[in-house]
Amino acid sequence: MQFHDVSECREALTTWAIENGKFIHFKRVEKDRLEAKCNPPCPWRVYASVVNDTKIFEIKRYDGEHDCPREMNNKLISSKWIAKKYLNVFRSRPNYRVKDLALDILQRYASEVNKNRLYKAKAIAVELLRGSIEEHYGLLKSYIAELKRADLICFWVMEMFSKGCGILVSVVGQDGNNEIYPIAWAIVEVENEQCWTWFLKCLIEDLNIADGAGWTFISDQQKGLTNAVSTLAPLAEHRNCARHVYMNWKKTHKEHDLKKLYWKAVKSTYVEKFKSAIQEMKVESRAAYEDFIGRDTKKFCKAFISTSACSDVITSNIAESFNASIVEARGKHIIHMFEEIRCTLMTQQVSRLHKISKVHGRICPNIMEKIEKLKFDSREYTAHPALGGKFEVHFEDDKFVVNLGDRTCTCRVWDLTGIPCVHGLACIRFKNEDATTFVDDYYTVSRYLEGYKVGLEPIRGQRMWPEVEETIVKPPVIRRMPGRPKKKRRRAPEEKDPKCPQKKKRTGVQMTCQNCHQQGHNSRSCKNDPVEKIPKEKGKRGRPAKKIPQQNSLVGSSRGTRKEHPQMSISANANARQVANACQVKERALARKGVGVIGFEESGNIYMRMSSHNKVIHVNKEISSTSSSRIRQSNVMKVCSPQESQSKPTQGNDD
């Protein structure tokens, strides 16, 4: 048997040993010879060397008899061998789990492999498939040249890659069907004002935004981004994400009622409703009210945003949706990440155009669905016409003025969105006209097709990229944070896990220190002196006795007389018997402490105990009422109450 070189010979012997469940070790591995043996006393041995002056390896001695048992934990199964053996599996199944890999190795080779070795093997296989980070950054100039050839990138991107980068930033819009429309994305070194200024400067030049008049930006409260927008587009409207504002506001105002009042104020579309909501907040908590007013409400409340954008969006959910759609792509190297994003969006454009081509109406389907829902809600609204195409719409105690000619309403919903509000639809229904004719042209199918007229172009493979003789871009310094890298979006404290929506979180639960018994920290970080815990008083054991009802429930008869209700009478008598039995048990226990005759004033029971034995006789049951009246007073020790008997039972004369 011959091989091209020593590495091929060694790899073949290793694979043979693993498949047959044998553990061999290579005693000698050199350029011109190789020797492998099994653990003694097994006589198995292989010797191979170079044939004459060639580089071909040939096995010249082979003792193929094994008398050793099968190895169930073969150490020859290394991470590199697993990566090469399962390379095609990882290529076809990128999300192949380590747990499935371990089961497959156990079934095929009857050997168990350490989990850390499997994770390392997966990392090696991924690096073999994707290449190293250095290789990707070295190909960036050629990749940019190919994108320019396909007219997919602007020349200003060259400036970005000259320094090395590490964070993905993006600009996402919303199309006429209320779907996300990614506009631009790039990699920057860090998220600061300098990088945001460069990115927005390139975007403004490419889209001809100029000073920003008529444009609207929505973002979180990142200081660098806010300063960049105000500097480069001073006339643009810059809204803040209301959810990000709420998360900062909630740190000091965590009550659930305040959360409802916050969103009620934020979603109020006209000033009067907004003022009413913040007054309710002021009554609930003055500190929360002052904190809310001090956060520049004109940037995140619908009552103050501009109506020129044809959108009432006050959150950055569309950007979060785009971020969630590229979670898997963000975990790859830079070129593979860009390629997956480009291919996904290129395919998405085709599917959306195919879907919209089946629409026969004037308005996009998602907008039509929203209008139909508002039509159904408008059944409770009454429209009263006035001169000039105006209407007065009544609903309960509210009145709104609608102008169909100007397509406006005093609730400002129609003004903000360009879609008729529920009041406007009530007026349209009154005139028996088509509601789609009153929708803004932005939501029409023709405008939608115009937006997708120019799409992403396909590009050639890596082997056909143009060669660029320039300085090779080096990757940035990777700052590894402690712990396992997180890919999923961090959920808000009150946000539920979609996999376990019924599971409750311990968010907001304050821990109690077992050392000083104060809240806010635990015993590990406690710096206070230990405090002795006061033990709680133990309650009385047993079931508590039921109280005797003072009067029975009475009902009137048809003749005017009052009779006792039979069911209530039975239950009251049963309770009385239970209390009487419990009282007798206590009285018997007190009677055993004395000798003679003992009587109790409250219950009227009389007991007798002889000195010769410990038995207590209930005299009321043993003798009749007439004979009990003849008992001499001299034989009775004392007639006392239970409280007096507990203190000291009195003994009478033995008769």
Strand content: 5-15%
Averaged pLDDT: 82
Main sheet: strand order:
1-5-4-3-2
Instruction: Indicate the CATH architecture of the domain at 131-241 and 316-360 and 455-477.
Output: 2-Layer Sandwich
Q: What is the multimeric organization of the chains shown? A: single chain
CATH topology of the domain at 131-241 and 316-360 and 455-477: Nucleotidyltransferase, domain 5
Tell me, briefly, the overall form. Answer: flat
| Fraction in helix | 25-40%
- End-to-end separation in angstroms reads 122 Å
The structure class reads: alpha+beta
pLDDT under 50 segments (min length 5)? 154-165, 551-570, 624-655
Largest sheet, if any? Answer: 5 strands, antiparallel
Strand tally is 19
Q: Helix count, per DSSP? A: 25
- CATH class term of the domain at 131-241 and 316-360 and 455-477: Alpha Beta
Secondary structure layout:
Elements: E1 2-3, H1 6-19, E2 24-29, E3 33-38, E4 45-50, E5 57-63, H2 79-85, H3 87-92, H4 98-109, H5 115-130, H6 133-138, H7 140-149, H8 157-160, E6 167-174, E7 180-188, H9 193-207, E8 216-219, H10 223-232, E9 237-240, H11 242-249, H12 256-266, H13 271-284, H14 286-293, H15 317-325, H16 327-330, H17 334-356, H18 365-377, E10 382-386, E11 390-395, E12 398-403, E13 408-409, H19 413-417, H20 422-431, H21 445-451, E14 554-556, E15 562-564, H22 566-591, E16 596-600, E17 606-609, E18 616-618, H23 619-622, H24 625-629, E19 636-640, H25 642-647
Helix pairs in contact: 2-5, 4-5, 9-10, 12-13, 13-14
